[in-house]
Design goal:
Chain A: InterPro entries: CPA3_Na-H_Antiporter_A, MrpA_C/MbhD, MrpA_C/MbhE, Nuo/plastoQ_OxRdtase_6_NuoJ. The structure holds two protein chains of two kinds. Chain A is built from seven helices and no strands. By secondary structure, chain A is mainly alpha-helical. Chain A has three domains: 1-81; 90-136, no CATH class; 147-176. The N and C termini of chain A lie far apart (55 Å). Chain B is an all-alpha fold. Helix content of chain B is 71%, strand content 0%. Chain B has helices at 2-20, 24-45, 68-99, 104-109. In chain B, helix 1 runs antiparallel to helix 2 (24-45) and helix 2 (24-45) packs antiparallel against helix 3 (68-99). Classes of the chains: A mainly alpha, B mainly alpha. Chains A and B meet through helix 1, helix 2, helix 3, helix 4 and helix 5 of A and helix 1, helix 2 and helix 3 of B.
Chain lengths: 177, 112
């Protein structure tokens, strides 16, 4: 578990860098570091499928970010500007919310703490009967493509809608020029 | 327990960026950080100490396997997260071409 804690500390540090650094290109690269750390974490957590998908998606998302920044500007002009009283109020509200969030998060997740709970009824059915019922050696695949194929159809629909949205928004820009 | 709390803190870093940053790219970065932390939390919940990946021919007695259900859920969530990020970035690019800045304060000041 120690390596997971080290990885999470790295992720939090890279996340803070991504949020606070002035150069937007550096910020996006730090975000990419967090994403690849998530992929390493998935391997540690016995989820190789997730690691593969996370790496592919992370490369794509960094490419999107960098494409946008290279087309525009990489200087964060808003950074370093003095704060107004309204902003300080925002910080205070965020601080209070963060404390409450962590407190209730700890209370809610206390039942999961040792991560040694038994598998649920549904999960153990998928695990033991998956090969006989679906023929898939990889149980995650059997869940995604057989037991919950309608969810996957919904996912494909969401992705298709997002692509259509991106095309609609960017084509409008092209026509205006 | 420390691991779960650490992923909550990563979530809060993303939320902090969304609430307090005035740069639209930073807000998009915050969204991505929140998404990563939630995905990671789900993968942690499905894991048990010493678990093997749920890729197997026969379930051997005495060995523990990680829960395939949260993994399938996160698989869906990662892909949808990419769609959300791509759409958000295209909107940001469009706003930049219209206004010439990533600054949310300037966008707030505009009328009509």
């Amino acid at each position: 578990m120690l390596e997971l804690i080290v990885l999470l500390i790295f992720m939090i540090a890279a996340g803070i860098v991504a949020v606070e650094i002035r150069d937007l290109l550096a910020s996006v690269i730090a975000l990419g570091a967090v994403g690849f750390a998530v992929a390493i974490g998935f391997i540690m957590l016995a989820a190789p499928d997730l690691a593969i998908v996370q790496i592919v998606i992370e490369v794509l998302s960094v490419v999107f970010f960098v494409a946008v920044i290279l087309k525009t500007t990489h200087v964060d002009s808003a950074a370093g500007r003095p704060y107004k009283p309204a902003d300080i109020f925002t910080f205070v509200v965020f601080g209070v919310f963060a404390l409450a969030f962590v407190y209730f998060g700890i209370r809610l997740l206390a039942g999961l703490a040792p991560m040694s709970r038994e598998l649920g009824q549904v999960a153990s059915h998928y695990l033991t009967q998956g090969l006989a019922e679906t023929g898939a050696v990889n149980r995650v695949t059997s869940v995604v493509l057989d037991y919950r194929a309608l969810d996957t159809l919904g996912e494909a629909t969401v992705l298709f809608t997002a692509v259509m949205g991106v095309l609609a928004v960017l084509r409008l820009e092209g026509r205006r020029k | 327990m420390i691991i779960l709390v650490a992923s909550l803190i990563l979530f809060l870093v993303g939320l902090y960026a969304i609430i307090t940053k005035r740069n639209m790219i930073k807000v998009a970065v915050g969204f991505s950080l929140m998404e990563y932390s939630v995905n990671f939390l789900f993968a942690i919940v499905g894991f048990r100490p010493g678990a093997l990946p749920p890729i197997l021919q026969v379930v051997e007695v005495g060995k523990v396997y990680s829960d395939p259900l949260p993994q399938a859920l996160v698989l869906t969530a990662i892909v949808i997260g990419l769609g959300v990020t791509a759409f958000m970035l295209s909107l940001i690019l469009r706003l930049y071409n219209r206004i010439g800045s990533f600054d949310l304060e300037e966008i707030k000041r505009l009328k009509g």
